Amino acid sequence: MTVAFADIEAAAERLGGRATRTPLLESAVLNATVGGRVLLKPECLQRTGSFKFRGAWNAISQLDPARNAGGVVAYSSGNHAQGVAAAARIVGLPALIIMPSDTPRIKQENTRSYGAEVVLYDRATEDREAIAAYHVAHRSAVFIPPFDHPDVIAGQGTVGLELAGQAVAAGCALDHVLVCCGGGGLVAGIAIAMARLSPSTLVHSVEPDGFDDYARSLRSGRRERNAAQAGSICDALLTPQPGVLTFEINRHLLGEGLVVDNRNVADAMRFAFEVLKLVIEPGGAVALAAVLSGKLPTRGRNIGVIISGGNADASLFARVLRGEI
Q1: Across residues 143-155, what is the average pLDDT?
Q2: Hey, which of 4, 53, 153, 185 would disulfide with 83, CB 3.0 to 4.6 Å?
C-alpha cells in the first residue's frame, strides 16, 4: 500500500464542506523572536479541535452504512477518537472508541458527546490492539486506524495541500515545515503534498523527549520503539513506534527529526496563549516549541509550523499558564 498525491486531492474533494479550511497565521512578535518568517497552520481551529477529523472523514465517508451496520472501532488518546466519533455520527454509523484511562477528561467527554461508546484501558499494562481486535470481531465493525491507513494519511495530507497554496498566496517560499508527530500519519500526508507542490521544502517530524521514536528511526533506517508508555505531558503523541506504512513514506521524504522537552512545550503553550491568542494542547504545541527553543536554525528562513490540536485539559493548561510546568 502507498499514498499518492492524487489520493490527497481526492480526499480534499470529500472534505469539501465538512472540514474547516484552517487559516495561515503570521505574528510580527514571533517573527522577531526567531529572526525569520513563521507561518502557522492552526488545526486547533479544525472541526473537533484537531487535524484528525480530516483523516477520519476521508476513511469513514467511503463506507456504505447499509453494509457496515456494525459501525466503526478505533483506539486513540483523544483526537482521533473525536474525529472518528464525529465522522461516524454524520454518516449514521455507531462508533466504539478505546481510550487510555489517563486521557484528559475533556477528550473523553467530547468523544462521548459525538455519540460514541468509550472503553477505557490502562496504557501501561493493557494492549489496545488486542482490545480493538476483540470489539471489531464482536461487533462486525470496521477498524479505523489512527495513522497507518492510506485513507487516513491522505486525509491528513490535505493540511499540506492547503499549506502549500496558502504559502504561495502569502508570497512565502517555505524552507522548512515542522509537524507534530506521533504515529506519523500527519507528517506523511504533508510530506507527500509538499514533495509535489514545494519540493525544495524540507519537512521535519517533531516529538516529545522520551517518545522520539521517529527521530531515532529516521537516523537508524528502521522502526525504533519507545521504552516508555507514559511520562510526557504530550498525551496525543505517545505512540509506541512509527507505523509500517507511515515510516515507509517518511523515511524517503523527511528531514531530520526534532525533539523537545516538557519545558519547551509549556513555554510554547504560554507563548501561543499570550501572544497568538490560541489555546493549544501539549501535543499540538511541539512544532512551535521546536521553533521557539531553537531546535532548528530560523534566522533568515521561512518556516511553516503545524499546530495540530487544541483539546487542552483545563487543569493542565492552568498549571502551564501559572508556570508550574
Answers
A1: 97
A2: 53
